[in-house]
Amino acid sequence: MASVPAVSVTPVSDFADWRDYFALLKPRVMTLVVFTGLCGLLAAPGHIHPVIGFTAVLCIAVAAGASGALNMWYEADLDARMKRTANRPIPAGRIDPASAFGFAVSLAIGAVAVMALAVNFASALLLTVSILFYVFVYTVWLKRRTPQNIVIGGAAGAFPPVIGWAAVTGDVTALPILLFALVFLWTPPHFWSLALFVRGDYANAGVPMLPVTHGERATRIHILAYTPLLVAVSLLPWAMRLTGVIYGVTAAVLGAVFMTLAVAVFRNDATDPAAMRPERRLFAFSVLYLFVMFGALVADRWLLA
Amino acid sequence: MADDDLQKKRKSRNLVLGAVLIGLAVLFYAITIARMG
Questions:
Q1: Measured distance CA(A153)–CA(A139) in Å, rounded
Q2: Which of A130, A178, A247, A270 is the most exposed place for a label (fewest CB within 10 A)?
């Protein structure tokens, strides 16, 4: 019998650097999630042991990373078609989809289990809901079907401050619900301002983002419509005396700037991304806005308590 | 891809995995102490 030559096959994932696995966790998105989760935890009344607090934030970060990895696994075909995402580990062929899926699911289960055992069941339950919401409601169901994808999908990103709060108190009261609403209403103008100047990428990939399905004008109107809602909700914690003057003044000043920038976007008629400076400014400011608002919330609690 | 490069990637992956496992062991120890306190 003729002998078959031995062939050494190197699995695709052997070409992956640890940095590729780290990139699967979407570390930039994780930064914002960790920050809002930590602020929810620090703003909550009561005491939490620093080690348990650290564990809670770590679980939020890992769960967010796992959700991001599952999103990348499911959307590898879309990512391959967009310039911005074509070099991600799965579409670039550095990690095979099965490995990415196993990695993500293990992290998600691990984060929820540690949260339940080390922190409390309320925060573990909320963490589970946030992962399932992001993966099934946003990624699988909404993203490719409706231009309102990020409106409802934004709820997934709004969970971290509530989870951080629940890690300390074990329950959810009015302030964490308002923080949820703040992030929920912040998401549409934030993503639509980005979608305006990367519209071509979404169109090429066939993602029904608002600028692709309804055009730039409709998107700018939507941004202008959501911004007053965001500003109003951001002022509610102060109006309801759930926070102090530091948060209130910050919300009023930043809300006014947000509104001004949204009006500038509304007044811009450009269709060429190169002429979309107001949109780029609003996008950049919206990131800063969320960081400063949550920072003010914590400062308020610790300095005025 | 050169064998050297592959070896280097495997080694760095294993080192990071080792560091993560040690980190988890330390974290679980700290959690146990904190929960007992």
A1: 8
A2: A270
